[in-house]
């Protein structure tokens, strides 16, 4: 009790100090440079007091102390920074799930002290999955897909042969997939989503497949490769590699608003108009369409605009051709404003225009594109000040934990006219509509379209709680975290200012895809990553516990569509077809591939392609899993597997990617017939 009370008092004193500093900065902003000496004097006092607080904080909380290094590392890792990173790694393994590492390797042990009850106050101990919690073996197999790989000597370029079936001869183009692959470096460890991006490509031509993988060489990756250590702060990792991290987090991050983080180029890869780019949270890097070499930011129009990893492709209704729309949502919490920018590119990769909108601070992850609107789903969140000043500045929380759900307001739909001049009078302004009967969060949307009666359909994967780290997917434990997303349809009336919700399916689903020739149009078929297994009432709150994300599911809507006034809410799922890759095998994000020479009016005439994590057999105690990766090709109509390819190296779970109809990143097409 004394320890907890002391820590609480220290936090209170820290908050008072920070408030004093903020007041001085505010005064400084009012009177310009007149109070500059006072500001710096108070800042110096704050720094001195905070250093004392940090020292006392570590004394009162033994789990903040640097643990002894494992004997296997003590001879080669002796610097203080490396020891601090090991301490951070140990902390992550036992603290809040959103920022813990998911690497297979066990975290360093805390010396020889096995009495874990004395390493932290009782109220800091997170719930531990019970031995009776469901799906523990499946979760263990699933999480082996979040394993770091080395950066040196891991890149490959080779033909891959089918282990089952054959590559369809009417399947042509290139699968492109990006994701964090290296999050361990020289004994230092970061959270999975902060890992360095590795792009994987599989080029298909003439019934052959050619594999290639290469790391995205951002400026930060190059510098860390030279120094062989992490040196830049990241979004999802608690510990901070900067010197004087507490001061940097308090002053640079919180007070000055400098939240620039490491660019890892890890969240998507886009091929459009002859340009290939890898994207992280807002900065794209051009890649070579020959060998995946990094050409750099600003090499082409698509890599010059500062956009995020989410984009949409649509056929313009005026017959002017296809457009790719990229998106940036930038929040300024100091001014409490958000700026959303939509970048429009033609089929040659030229930027045509930028549409910019400002509104109140909000978190937006993805968007829907229809013929008439850009549509954003505004997740109800707020800044978590106790976490910011009580944990973040002391490296016991990561940046992503500084925002939290806000249950005092409803989610919002923001409808922004793409071509206001084409809209009827009275419908040319931005429309903001509350979600009337559904409180949820949504990150990845399926599709959307305008109806004949002037309404708008918005399909998405809805979450019942906010988590920027997606821990229900990346860190399931069967007690506090497990897949619980639902397939939801919202029908929005821009004129009446209303929205209605219907749950299409309650199987946890994410990473949706459709045939992108139907993007922004009335459609029937969607393909999703889905959970396998359900244990009714097994959660502490009495809800069902679901197994890990493992299958791919095709959801087909009834054919009536949404032409009639009441048809949207009557629309229901006609059929579901599920494909499970096998025991201890887990499908990743699906991609639709139109059949070469197929019927362009047949929405599901094509293939579904995805990477599959193979966790192998359960290893003996103390042994490491023998993990590998496959590429699976399914018939998009029947969802039956027609081919499996064994990849030459293990590829960790990815984030996003695409399938381009252009053949690239393989040998010359005339040489593909000579493949394995």
- What's the total count of β strands? 37
- pLDDT < 50 runs, ≥5 residues: 1-7, 28-37, 58-127
Report the average pLDDT across residues.
83
Multimer state: single chain
Give your account of this protein's structure.
By secondary structure, this protein is an alpha+beta fold. The chain is about 20% helix and about 30% strand. It has 11 helices and 37 strands. The strands form 10 sheets. Strands 2, 32, 33, 34, 35 and 36 form a 6-stranded antiparallel sheet that branches. A hairpin with a 2-residue loop joins strand 6 and strand 7. Helix 1 (about 1-30) runs antiparallel to helix 2. The relative contact order is 0.13.
Explain the layout of strands and helices.
Elements: H1 2-31, H2 36-60, H3 71-74, H4 80-94, H5 136-143, E1 156-159, E2 162-165, E3 173-182, E4 184-185, E5 188-189, E6 196-205, E7 208-215, H6 219-227, H7 245-255, E8 268-272, E9 275-279, E10 284-287, E11 294-296, H8 301-304, E12 311-315, E13 322-332, E14 337-345, E15 351-360, E16 367-369, E17 373-378, E18 381-383, H9 385-390, E19 403-405, E20 412-417, E21 431-434, E22 441-450, E23 456-463, H10 471-474, E24 486-493, E25 498-505, E26 509-513, E27 525-531, E28 534-535, E29 545-546, E30 549-557, H11 567-570, E31 573-579, E32 585-587, E33 591-594, E34 606-614, E35 628-635, E36 641-646, E37 656-660
Antiparallel strand pairs: 1-7, 2-36, 3-6, 3-37, 4-5, 6-7, 8-9, 9-10, 10-11, 12-13, 13-14, 14-15, 16-17, 17-20, 18-19, 20-21, 22-23, 23-24, 24-25, 26-27, 27-30, 28-29, 30-31, 32-34, 33-34, 34-35, 35-36
Helix pairs in contact: 1-2
